[in-house]
Amino acid sequence: MTAWYEDDDFWRDTYQLMFSDEAFRRAAEDVDQIMSLASGDAHRVLDLCCGPGRHAIPLARKGCALTAVDSSAWLLDRARENARAAGVSPEFVHADMRSFVRANEFDVVLNLHNSFGYFDARSDDARVLSNVFESLRPGGTAVIDVNPKELQGRRGDRVVDLPDGATCVQRVQVVDEWSTLVSEWLMIRGASVRRYRVTHRLYSAFELRTAMEATGFDVSVFGDLSGSPYGPQSTRLVAVGRKPDTLTAHACHSGVADPVV
């Protein structure tokens, strides 16, 4: 059975909801804050799970040498179209974040807009963090932006009418001892109804920090991309992990402990 994140029908059906014009505008505004959090030299940047290029394109416009990776061929096609329209040429790579790694190549690695925690196995999340760590140069920075567990736990069902006349119905529940959010998405267009089951691993600030520290990162946690303190009412969980300039034996270890969940 195809996993939800590998199903291009899902991304095609939900594109207007997830990647609206307003979402693109917000992403362009986010870029300065993101790079401020990353700080330091940020010439070579990896956008891991780039989608249609919301952040990759404004970063490329700022002169970053940008590599943008996604496992969805359909979303990458949209990203290439958007990049051409913007007059920029990031490197686009069709790859799974569990396998993509380029040792010591990037100053900054970004994983944004709740793109971490897709996989059923906790070891897969750990593998992603290991790949990110290995892909950073010593002293480089990873920025991971997810919905906090506390916020997700308060989410209810929702109904959204889309510009093309479709309706999206989301039914959500938190399962497995508050470790996983399960969403049923109903995409209704006239008499047609498509159903998708989406699962997402949930992280508290402590759990995400612990997972990143187990990989070797020095970690700071914030409540949004502007760097506000993290607290119970935070709408984002933003973890900034720095790869030490000098790696200890622990940080150089190729295996990674499972995240605490």
Describe the secondary-structure layout.
Layout: H1 8-18, H2 21-38, E1 44-48, H3 56-61, E2 65-70, H4 73-86, E3 91-94, E4 106-111, H5 122-135, E5 136-146, H6 149-154, E6 158-161, E7 167-175, E8 180-189, E9 192-201, H7 205-215, E10 218-222, E11 237-242, H8 249-252
Please identify which CATH superfamily of the largest domain we are dealing with: Vaccinia Virus protein VP39
- Domain count: the total is 2
What name does the CATH topology of the largest domain carry? Rossmann fold
Give the CATH architecture of the largest domain: 3-Layer(aba) Sandwich
What is the CATH domain class of the largest domain?
Alpha Beta
Radius of gyration: 18 Å
Percentage of residues in helical conformation = 25-40%
How far apart lie the N and C ends? 26 Å
Secondary structural class: alpha/beta
Name the helix and strand elements from N-terminus to C-terminus, one letter apiece. Answer: HHEHEHEEHEHEEEEHEEH
Described by strand count, sense and barrel closure, the largest sheet is:
7 strands, mixed
Q: How would you sum up the global shape?
A: globular
Oligomer: single chain
State the total count of DSSP E strands: 11
Q: DSSP strand (E) fraction?
A: 25-35%
Contiguous uncertain segments of 5+ residues? 249-261
Give the strand line-up of the largest sheet: 3-2-1-4-5-11-10
| Number of continuous helical runs | 8
